[in-house]
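Got a spare moment? Tell me how you read both lines of this record:
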Amino acid sequence: MAIAKAERLMNLALCLLGTRRPLSKRELRESIEAYLEAGSDDSFNRMFERDKDDLRELGLVIETVENLDGEVGYLARRDSNRLPPITLDAEEAAALGLAAKVWQQARLAGAASGALQKLRAAGMPEDVDPYEAHGALEPHIPVHEAAFEPLMLACRDRRPVVFDYRKATAASPETRHVEPWALECWRGHWYLAGWDRDRGAERVFRLSRITGKVRARAGRYTAEVPDVVTVRETVAGWAGEIADRSARIRLRTGSGYPLRAKAVSVRELGDGWDELEIPYGHGLDAWLVEFGPDVVVLEPAELRADVVDRLRAVAKG
């Protein structure tokens, strides 16, 4: 279905760009095979209006013109849909080169390299090596999760998905029905932001906790996609980065350096233990669990209980 729609949009764009005069709906229907196969005039009109809106969202400038007989026609003038000449200096070329290099180990490697070659052909300085001035830099975004590619395509095509997800506190995964919005890498991990249909709320999912295959589903989104999806801010809140309280923990000497880096105060207790005061925000329990027996929560009581519950879930599963 996605291929058929893409082909239909391409044919419509070519018709609108290739004409010297406005084309009516009737003429466009007769020129595009997919429109001829529409079962009724109403079906064609709905399809055409959706396609026209999609092309405009993609940036194609489509003009609506009414002739002397009152008939409405459409065309896309080439001068209105032509990009200005591309001029890049050495620093801009280096930035683009580094951006393309980021995706060398991911599915986008071919697309990034192809885009870079097109930019060079279109105006990027030929005598500038994008990596020469930054040869010591090796930017890399790890993409090891099998869920990355299907979720990336689902975000692009606005298609709902279904997958099994294992929360840190759960012994087994559960099925989630999600309308994916955006993917973002934060501190070496990929996260998906989207609308959880079962819970009727926005949620963020860590890709490494998705088990099995991501299955695409037909149908439209039921929730409005926000203009700005703040994945990092949401994850930071869940990871305890946004804190409004303090917690006291015991930490084994010589361990837990990330916790020590965030500590407000550190006091040596002896016998191989230190006492730390650290910022306490939502999700701190999940982070503390990662340090296993090297951490003991002293207070508050609810944080201690949450950590104990998580450790019991890990022991069961």
About this structure: The chain has eleven helices and twelve strands. The longest strand covers residues 174-186. The radius of gyration is 27 Å.
